[in-house]
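Q: Can someone sanity-check these two? First one:
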Amino acid sequence: MLKRIVLKLIAAIARKKTYNTANKPVQTQKKQLKTLIKKALLTRFGVDHNFKKIFDYETFKSQVPIRDYEDIKNYIELIKQGEASVLWPGRPIYFAMTSGTTSGSKFIPITKDSLPNHLNGAKKAILIYVANTGKTNFIDGKFIFIQGSPLLTKISGIPTGRLSGISAHHIPHYMKKNMLPTWQTNTIDDWEKKVDNIISETINQDMTLISGIPSWLQMYFEKIKSTTGKKISSIFPNFNLLIYGGVNFKPYEKKFSSLIGKKIDTIELFPASEGFFAFQDQINGEGLLLILDAGIFYEFISVKDYREDKINRVSIEDVRINKDYLMIISTSAGLWGYNTGDTVRFVSLSPHRIIVTGRIKQQLSAFGEHVIVKEVEQAMQKAIQLSDALVSEFTVAPRFKSKNHKACHEWYIEFDKEPNNLKDFALNLDSELQTQNKYYKELILGKIIQKPDIKIVLKGGFKKYMKNAGKLGGQNKIPKIANDRLIVERITKLNLLKTI
């Protein structure tokens, strides 16, 4: 009882502090920029970019250009060679290693100043949940915060590994007795074996809070169901809070509801190796609250402008609602004008809440349609709502005109339960995508492309594809859209399609 009272008190304090800064967005962000510049004045990067002459946002923009990882790689290499005070005073305390699409592995610095942002984001989300709902039952049971391997290597003395593995070294002592899986299980590299071990360790426990990316959660829940023949709510009757991040949960909501067997609360997070950016602060409201006071200064470029090579950067002061932006950050880890590659849309400006609309390089525009991830996810969500189908996973690729086929979008879908009428399901995908995207609609009406064609992926097919591609487990996800056919051709070559 005392534990719950204390938790509610801490949660109330956290909520007050969170909304105090959220309700002063411009003032808070100006302070962040000023502090970042001041601390990095004498770094190599600060000297190279004349930080001593930066007095406001306008001069910052003139001195610090937008950079991808490739453009800061030379600075990162200096740090890896042992040099100090390159991007931020001193040396990083970690490198978070992540896979890059064009640059191979990326090594994102984490400093003493930036670490709290990574560690406190999820904690803040849970405290706001408690403050807003009054619910504290989850603290009486066991938790899963799935992580990558906590085993770290070293580069010039700097511990290096996946961010989730790094986080495993900083679990508060008071939480460790409630945390699963064990350290030994977390160090297992083989993802399927790791999930089996997690099930063995958790299936007889009173699990109340489970966290992970949806693809991992789905594998975990499906294996439990196949092993026991029971829904998750029967195995874990006190399970009442699910925390996730990495992908939009809505298209999978119906499937998870079927697996779990009861309605539970969910909290969405927006973490990345570069920083913890936002979290869901309302149970039923739309959008994630942008964290403005944790050592990150945000800039935004209209996606439309960026695609036209117009680099018009704006701060939080000048963003507009329902407009897609590329998110740029400068952080206390020494990332300056850094292009995250993430695209977001503001759904509220008081306070600033965003939805993640995709990745700037993830766009389906093989025919000039400019379709983004959010639009195909919304189309899938609508089609599921209008049918009895349950969807496990999907991806969309262009099919180009040939002697035997007309041009169209091909939807490769793994159904847990197929719709009664596949043709109607395809028409609903098309109808909603036309509603979402005017360019796609024009191409359909102009008969440049025909309506979508569905290819049914065999059950477990996407898992087999990921395993074959060496991407099973961890934070790896199936891209929802692509301009090429590399993924779907591999799926076809592996004979993972159902013959219709």
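And here is the second, same format, sequence then tokens:
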Amino acid sequence: MDQQTDRRGRRETSVKSGELSPYRRFEREEWAHLRADMPMTLDEADLERLRGLNDPVSLEEVVKIYLPLSRLLSLYVEATQGLFRVTNSFLGGEGAKVPFVIGIAGSVAVGKSTTARILRALLSRWASSPKVDLVTTDGFLYPNAVLAREGLMRRKGFPESYDLPALLEFLAAIKAGKGAVTAPVYSHLVYDVVPGETVTIDRPDILILEGLNVLQTSKLPKNGQGLPFVSDFFDFSIYLDADDPLLRHWYVERFMRLRETAFRNPQSYFHRYAQLTDDEAVKTADDLWTNINLVNLHDSIRPTRPRADLVLIKGADHRIQSVDLRKL
């Protein structure tokens, strides 16, 4: 901080924005040094299975970014387990062990799914061999029939398109240590929740929850009796970020690749796009990005970034250029 004098002679204090930030910024190479002795447990064949469409993450990226993150998470998990033990002792041994929950948020096309899968693979290969499960919030979207009836099909992915009570009930059961908790399943092929299909989560050591709006808040009621936020159930949260032009480029590029692959399946909800010319496809993708996904990003998703414990900031080619870690 430094002192300045205004035109009336009054002393004012100016503060640089960095001094007010709750985060510490690590550039790529600085973060990579924090790996220490965390072992590399993935090979190229593993990574090939974990990569998302149009997300060319490399083994170098895993070494420099995800291994230090894995080490950091191991410290958080160990500290949380220690806190559980002393709290359980305080309560006279009445507490039940609950999963360590990690939330991953960020825009469409930023690479959340790839990050979630890589972290799951790395965490599950710790020496302690923890059980790590991964759930996406897509399954908690309202079915298309409901969205269509409510006029929300072009708001799909916005906060109001999710069955928030069902998601909160799921997380509450997980954090209560209950076994065999079920979550609905979403199909990207048919672009809808699959009726009657569920995935069972049975007391994992770590649960990763990935979704656009997992850090979303709502207006607090004056009587203090509102529902909890999804992030209230998190032990650690991650936000993936990139500049708008990069996100738009990745979204359009992914759309064009899907047009040549998944969209050609007659069962695909987007099968009609497979017949578009290149120019028509780019125009369609740009419309979907600009009028739906970019609006959601600006209105609902990016405003939640300051609530994350850690922010991964991507540059070109999906390479993470810097990491912001919340100060303790």
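A (reply): Looked at the second one. Confidence is low (pLDDT under 50) at residues 1-15. The chain has one domain: 24-326.
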